[in-house]
């Protein structure tokens, strides 16, 4: 079994970036342990606090955020971090070459039901000479990412990682604490019969998405002429991992449920890293009107619509939006 550093060195990945990725993974190993402890660790349930998203913070949200923030800022590899659980960016080493945006525990509403959760991270180059306290250093389109990945805390702990040379899976060997390569060059099948969407929002979707999903549900009695299956894990990391493993289309579209919040998923630390992983595996990641990784961000907690997965199925969905 091949270990992470040699695999990335062969890809020509700068040693400093490999060390930064290994720093993220050092925190994720501890998170894997804590999440795996569940009720035994006393970290389930919610705090009395809300994050800037207006969401009640789970105890594990706070713990995992602190773990990642501390280890990254102490490493010296990071000029600044942005986190779902931090109202503002946090400055690091002014001489560092990278910035990291992360969702420390995506799907945290699943923690109390022992379902899938994960850590999502996005790494970009820090603009030369930039002020680490200046949040505008994060205002870069997703195509600028130099690395992106997630760690999925499931029956096994799996890292999906790309540095621009394809998407690979590594599985955590919990005995030795190492991530071992278990899938070289994941490929998203171009066709699929499986879709993932929170169908309870159906009446709030735009007509294009209502029509597209209706035709999937109509199956072989409708215009698609074949039946489809649905899955919804309510944790993007779990749904995207399924798409990377066996294809599918995952979407959290624009909806009118909350006029102040037409979109749910965050661009910097959910949509962009997942879009890079999916594109590196041959899939497509769009908002419905534009490629996710082309978006020029204007706020660190900016939200976007997401439609990603199997190339031909995403293109079919996009054809309803024209
Ligand atoms: P939480 O981290 O608050 O559980 O939200 C997870 C998430 O951001 C994303 O991972 C899921 O795909 C999506 O929200 C689930 O949203 P619904 O709860 O509306 O289905």
Estimated structural class: alpha+beta
CATH superfamily of the largest domain: Fructose-1,6-Bisphosphatase, subunit A, domain 1
Low-confidence stretches: none
Radius of gyration: 19 Å
The CATH topology label of the largest domain is Fructose-1,6-Bisphosphatase, Chain A, domain 1
**Ligand roster:** 1,6-di-O-phosphono-alpha-D-fructofuranose
Strand content: 25-35%
Q: Quick one: overall form?
A: globular
Largest sheet: 8 strands, mixed
Q: What is the count of β-strands? A: 17
Question: What's the CATH architecture of the largest domain?
Answer: 2-Layer Sandwich
Helix content: 25-40%
How far is the N terminus from the C terminus? 46 Å
Query: In oligomeric terms, what are we looking at?
Result: single chain
TL;DR of this structure?
Residues 16-183 form the Fructose-1-6-bisphosphatase class I N-terminal domain. Helix content is 29%, strand content 25%. The chain has 322 residues and is α+β, with helices and mostly antiparallel strands.
Pick out its properties:
eight-stranded mixed sheet, globular, alpha+beta, 322 residues, hydrolase, 7 helices, single chain, fructose 1,6-bisphosphate 1-phosphatase activity, 2 domains, binds 1,6-di-O-phosphono-alpha-D-fructofuranose, five-stranded mixed sheet, D-Maltodextrin-Binding Protein, domain 2, Fructose-1,6-Bisphosphatase, Chain A, domain 1
Structure characterization notes:
The chain is an alpha+beta fold and 322 residues long. The chain has two domains: 4-183, 2-Layer Sandwich (Fructose-1,6-Bisphosphatase, Chain A, domain 1), CATH 3.30.540.10; 194-320, D-Maltodextrin-Binding Protein, domain 2 (3-Layer(aba) Sandwich). 29% of the residues lie in helices and 25% in strands. The strands form four sheets. An eight-stranded mixed sheet has the order 4-3-5-6-7-8-9-10, sandwiched between helices. It has a five-stranded mixed sheet with strand order 12-11-13-17-15, with helices on both faces. A two-stranded antiparallel ribbon has the order 1-2. A hairpin with a 4-residue loop joins strand 9 (167-173) and strand 10 (178-183). Bound molecules: 1,6-di-O-phosphono-alpha-D-fructofuranose (AFP). 1,6-di-O-phosphono-alpha-D-fructofuranose (AFP) binds at residues 55, 106-109, 198, 234-236, 252, 264-265.
């Amino acid at each position: 079994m091949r270990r992470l550093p040699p695999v990335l060195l062969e890809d020509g990945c700068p040693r400093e970036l490999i060390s930064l990725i290994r720093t993220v993974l050092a925190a994720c190993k501890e998170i894997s342990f804590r999440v795996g402890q569940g009720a035994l660790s006393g970290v389930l349930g919610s705090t009395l606090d809300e994050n800037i998203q207006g969401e009640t913070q789970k105890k594990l949200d706070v713990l995992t955020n602190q773990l990642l923030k501390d280890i990254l800022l102490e490493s010296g590899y990071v000029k600044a971090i942005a986190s779902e659980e931090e109202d503002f960016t946090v400055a690091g080493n002014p001489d560092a070459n990278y910035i990291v945006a992360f969702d420390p525990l995506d799907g945290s509403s699943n923690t109390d039901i022992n379902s899938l959760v994960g850590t999502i991270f996005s790494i970009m180059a820090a603009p030369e000479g930039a002020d680490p306290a200046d949040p505008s250093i994060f205002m870069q389109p997703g195509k600028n990412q130099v690395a992106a990945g997630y760690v999925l805390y499931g029956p096994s702990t799996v890292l999906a990682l790309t540095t621009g040379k394809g998407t690979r899976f590594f599985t955590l060997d919990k005995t030795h604490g190492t991530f071992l390569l278990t899938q070289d060059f994941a490929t998203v099948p171009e066709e699929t019969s499986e879709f993932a969407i929170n169908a309870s929002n159906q009446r709030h979707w735009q007509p294009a998405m209502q029509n597209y999903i209706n035709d999937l549900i109509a199956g072989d009695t409708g215009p698609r002429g074949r039946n489809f299956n649905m899955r919804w894990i309510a944790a993007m990391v779990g749904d995207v991992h399924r798409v990377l493993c066996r294809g599918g289309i995952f979407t959290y579209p624009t909806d009118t449920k909350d006029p102040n919040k037409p979109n749910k998923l965050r661009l910097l630390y959910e949509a962009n890293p997942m879009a890079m992983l999916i594109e590196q595996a041959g899939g497509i990641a769009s908002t419905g009107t534009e490629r996710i990784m082309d978006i020029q961000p204007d706020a660190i907690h900016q939200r976007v619509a997401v439609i990603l997965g199997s190339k031909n199925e995403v293109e079919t969905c996009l054809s309803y939006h024209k």
